[in-house]
């Protein structure tokens, strides 16, 4: 069986952009542009809670980073880099290759290189933790406490559709044509 360091080298080590110390050392290092602040966010995804065990690993790799990138965007921050933690119940190299492909593809599109993380063996289900780091001009972060009466609120998609779709797919709610039609976007 491959060691933790072999798995990291094979699936998650990429050249870090200039000025960043990435995967392979005790800590990642990255500069913060003058006059800017660091914005950071962490999300934990658990098998059976946030995704089904049979989910496409490439799509899951994409989702694992996407949920964090959306937090940076909500604050008005641009990505600097990210770290990834994986607790794997078993070694499946085909799964890891597909997960890494989805993760790295989205990271490249958004200029958010993987610069560190950790892997370990899980005794139960798969767990994925991603932390992103971004930069935002000092005092320009779009904070929740900055909302004011009469501000516009913009929403994409159908509010609650993903939750309804999850409950339908998980068998928590009975399927019916009207609910399935209403959640079609969340199911695709």
Automatic annotation (TrEMBL):
Gene Ontology process terms (BP): thiamine biosynthetic process
InterPro entries membership: PurM-like_N, PurM-like_N_sf, ThiL-like
Claim: Transferase is one of the keywords in the record: yes
PurM-like N-terminal domain: residues covered: 24-136
UniProt entry keywords in alphabetical sequence: Kinase, Thiamine biosynthesis, Transferase
GO MF annotation, one: thiamine-phosphate kinase activity
Pfam families associated with the record: AIRS
NCBIfam families hit by this protein: thiL
Protein name as annotated: Thiamine-phosphate kinase
Record organism: Achromobacter ruhlandii
Taxon lineage: Bacteria, Pseudomonadati, Pseudomonadota, Betaproteobacteria, Burkholderiales
